């Protein structure tokens, strides 16, 4: 079926014409226990401001029957995912019966069979316009309405939706139960949900909320292990946001459902879904716990920003995602144990935004979105990471008090409604007592990354688009060498305006521009500061200062102004003395990234061995032993490295560490299939097969590589999770160029036919881009493919961004 993508013009006209009073959606999931059939009956009650007018309802599922105001419709008129509606009355009732068997691809819905116990689980995820793939609706964000769900499901299943069930009773149909859920508030069609399966459910009452946690049966021990932490984070987040926004979450029930094979998470009102890779199969490290906390608080922030108040159209998608990303880090730093989250974010998570924003895939944070397909292209690091960094800069620019007051007014004035950007910026401007129109245009309507540099007493700002540089409110930290220490002399606040700004700074040996990471800009240190920062990063007392140096290393690599070996060496040196768990894993990750991917293939083994040396020293620190051993396992080179690992693995019985050691052995041409089989047999992880694929992926062996390729692109057997990104990185080994060269072009051939929903496609595109081995011929072909309109716009944008990084990587290897 050819599907038409709803245009902004069509959406505006339909919104002008219609008002949806409510949806009553009956769902039949009994066909999913042993088959693929999902059925629905959608009853839409709506009004029309121009009786006699015509419009259409969205429905991609197979329509078997439809009636409008009691009159049967000719369902054969349905085309391209649309059913025409003519002769509308002032008050209308539309009933559409539909079904689909497309429940295995992750397009709006996914049916999964757990490989360990053969139990079946089903989730829905409807952003941006995938509600229409399950039931008839006016699938656009500004036609909000209450939803009432009735779900027929197998009797052994538990069903979750946005609200609490009003009743659950045996159905007339054998072995089935009927679930009736309370009406939702006025919601957009993309944030409603129905999940079902034999879930394990835990409920707790706290602070006036009914908190629910769900997972598949095979993961019960992992949920129960982490339950206290999840409950604590949920309570902290609801309390923090409720107070800061002056509006508690207005529903008693708040569920969090961990589901298989979801590449990310989805902010369904009152019923968040996460990929259950967030229930870590071995006790999680500090960084894994922090990542999960960010997920929990990100999706929770959406209850206000996105669900309660929703953008009118997808051109303001950043209002959802950037805000949720910023708010989650803000809450982590202020309300949880992860008080150094801004340092972790800077060291590791801003890099993808700079990579995209410096290259040809860049785009303004907001921009015109002609149709929904165009909106999908903007689910990227600019929308999420640059967007949240710009909000962080706005808070520094107008002050936290005004920022918070603006948010409170925004939620108060627009609850359960739709907004445009001017509504938010107007609230900020009124709270701050200043006109923010120029700031808005400079930061949100222009693409590219400014570069800051300090020459003498002058700060220079280079804009990427040759226009007047953006205004930047930054701090400059001055340090002096004081024996073995680096003493902070002063932190100087500066408001940058124009291409140059004169500053008065105290005497010192080291200047850190953008101290505290208040703005989004690349930094070019003066030569003396750069040399000292690379040499003495570990001596800087402030975690954010150390993170700033590491962030600067990755920026300079992109600018082509730092040799990868210098960056990798600095990181390995810093890690020998780094003790902050919030920084250890980001530094280890960046260190491996630079030594493994950016370095010349001839230099990489030595740099990875030096990183392993640092990890072995770090492993002596109990607080950081786990991530240090993991990095050591991924880069082990010498007999001394293996001795440390063998002792640690034997003492702890750590299956995760054992897998990492097998992967590294395989990369070195020492794959032990018997050891793989033994570990697979004793590993209780229901998705342990992905770890076996990692061992195969690392192997310098044609048959092994082909097996992994088939899992990715033929069988679609790789669960969408962070493991997917790791698997892709392991597949493309720098030392296996001749073996892997043909696969680089096969990657491009897969993009036009890539299956799965938006989240899953995005993970695969990024995971399998061949950064480590793509040569100039591949880069030329990739850039040509990025102009091929048979490939989705989202995939083309990702291809441009990744190809820019590959080009800069080639350039850096020449330094």
From TrEMBL:
Q: Where is the ERAP1-like C-terminal domain?
A: 512-776
Quote the EC number: 3.4.11.2
GO terms in the biological process aspect are: peptide catabolic process; proteolysis
Q: Name one GO molecular function term.
A: zinc ion binding
Q: Which domain of life is it from?
A: Bacteria
The entry sums up its family as follows: Belongs to the peptidase M1 family.
Under the heading InterPro entries, the entry gives:
Aminopeptidase_N-like_N (IPR045357), Aminopeptidase_N-like_N_sf (IPR042097), ERAP1-like_C_dom (IPR024571), Pept_M1_aminopeptidase (IPR012778), Peptidase_M1 (IPR001930), Peptidase_M1_aminopeptidases (IPR050344), Peptidase_M1_dom (IPR014782), Peptidase_M4/M1_CTD_sf (IPR027268)
The UniProt keywords, alphabetically, are: Aminopeptidase, Hydrolase, Metal-binding, Metalloprotease, Protease, Zinc
Keyword Hydrolase appears in the UniProt entry: yes
Question: Tell me, what's a Pfam family for it?
Answer: ERAP1_C
Name of the featured protein: Aminopeptidase N
Per UniProt, residues of the Aminopeptidase N-like N-terminal domain are: 117-191
Question: What GO CC terms are in its UniProt record?
Answer: cytoplasm; extracellular space; membrane
Q: Which reaction does it catalyse?
A: Release of an N-terminal amino acid, Xaa-|-Yaa- from a peptide, amide or arylamide. Xaa is preferably Ala, but may be most amino acids including Pro (slow action). When a terminal hydrophobic residue is followed by a prolyl residue, the two may be released as an intact Xaa-Pro dipeptide
Question: Required co-factor?
Answer: Zn(2+)
Record-annotated Peptidase M1 membrane alanine aminopeptidase domain positions: 234-443
